[in-house]
Every structure is written in C-alpha cells, then in structure tokens.
C-alpha cells in the first residue's frame, strides 16, 4: 500500500514538518509501514522493542498478563497515538507488556535510535520530529496517570464514573463514544464483566447516565 504522506502530515508526530520532507525523512530514519490483522501481536511480553510505533488506523491495546493468565488492559490506543515508546526509550529494551491489534490496524514503525540521533545533514525537520515525540510521550504519561486515578477508586461505581468523566473530557462532549467493549472495559477497570454491566444498568435506571450500545451520555 502506497503511503499517504498528506495524511501523515496531519498527525501530531509530524506536526510542523512539510509533506515534501516527510518521504525523505522516513527513508533516512528507516520507517517501515505494516498492516496488522485483528488479533495480531506486533509486540509480545519480553520481546525486544527497538522501534516506536505510530497507529495510522485501527486500534491497539497494551495488555498485561499475570502468572495465572488473567489479563488487564493497561492502555487502549487509536489513530495518531504512539505505542512501544516506553520500552524503546528505556535502558531495558524488553517489553513487560503485550500489544494486540483489536481490529485491522495500519502502523508505522520508526527505529528509536535513528529518531533521537540526527543524521549528518542535521535536517531541521528531524529536530521537529524529536520535539513532537517528546510532547506525545508526555501526553501519554498524563493519560496513564488518569488510569491510576481510575483504578485507585474504592468502589466499582466510582471507577466507572471517573472513566466516563475522562472520556467526556477527552471527546469534549457529555455525549461520547466508548472506545471499549463491555469485556474490554471490565478488563481496563480490573473488574468482573457482569458486575460492570450490572452497575451500568443501575446508574442508567437512577438517571446518572444514559447509553445505547457504546454511545454514552452523562446526565
């Protein structure tokens, strides 16, 4: 599939970089495009992660599995977002989490060492790429702090309401689309699916929220 450099230029990672420079920069860095099928794993736990991935379309979940095989969704990422950067940037390049495509997904993999070390030409747009990536890593860390706040709530109801509140803020509307299925939401909240469904139904009856499938409204 031929890369759409016009589309790439609108992503936050490439903000401030002219479309005409994108192709040359990606060739210099060694960027690689890849299509993932639903259920495919671009990174498994304990894999070495030498690259930073950016999602062009589709969705990827970062998942942790414990010794008993129970899984929890640590982060759900969509178009324009980075994945794998936590491990690619560290001193230990091996991932402690698994990344899975939850639908057909198109990604761009950028070798991290070539991203942070400019080429001999010292292209100004390369410095812009580094600045953009640092900003995105900072924003993602803020979202992970939100996850910590959610799961630290003492009751399941407070966890759900805090999560829904963050989604409303993120989508800038009291009516918004939930990016997770009920099973995925339960995994994200570290809760039982039946308990989550029951609590959602109770809050709907009480007039706290309304929802139809994955469209939610805070009342």
UniProtKB/TrEMBL annotation:
PROSITE patterns: CNMP_BINDING_3, HTH_CRP_2. It comes from the Bacteria. GO terms for biological process: regulation of DNA-templated transcription. InterPro entries: cNMP-bd_dom (IPR000595), cNMP-bd_dom_sf (IPR018490), HTH_CRP (IPR012318), RmlC-like_jellyroll (IPR014710), WH_DNA-bd_sf (IPR036390). Residues 154-219 form the HTH crp-type domain. Keywords: DNA-binding, Transcription, Transcription regulation. One of its GO terms (molecular function) is DNA binding. The keyword Transcription applies. Pfam families: cNMP_binding, HTH_Crp_2. The keyword RNA-binding does not apply. Residues 13-110 form the Cyclic nucleotide-binding domain. This is Crp/Fnr family transcriptional regulator. The lineage of its organism: Bacteria, Bacillati, Bacillota, Negativicutes, Veillonellales.
């Amino acid at each position: 599939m031929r890369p759409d450099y016009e589309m790439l230029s609108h992503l936050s990672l490439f903000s401030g970089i002219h479309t005409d420079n994108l192709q040359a920069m990606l060739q210099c860095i060694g960027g690689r495009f890849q299509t993932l099928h639903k259920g495919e794993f671009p990174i498994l736990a304990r894999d070495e992660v030498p690259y930073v991935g950016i999602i062009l379309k589709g969705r990827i979940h970062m998942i942790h599995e414990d010794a008993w095989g129970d899984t929890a969704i640590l982060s759900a990422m969509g178009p324009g977002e980075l994945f794998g950067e936590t491990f690619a940037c560290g001193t230990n390049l091996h991932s402690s989490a698994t990344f899975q495509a939850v639908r057909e997904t198109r990604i761009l993999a950028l070798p991290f060492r070539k991203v942070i070390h400019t080429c001999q030409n010292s292209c100004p747009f390369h410095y812009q790429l580094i600045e953009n990536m640092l900003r995105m890593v900072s924003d993602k860390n803020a979202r992970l702090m939100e996850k910590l706040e959610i799961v630290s709530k003492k009751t399941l109801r407070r966890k759900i309401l805090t999560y829904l509140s963050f989604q409303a803020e993120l989508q800038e509307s009291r009516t918004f689309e939930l990016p997770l299925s009920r099973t995925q939401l339960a995994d994200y909240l570290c809760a039982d699916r039946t308990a989550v469904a029951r609590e959602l139904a109770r809050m709907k009856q009480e007039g706290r929220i309304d929802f139809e499938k994955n469209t939610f409204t805070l009342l």
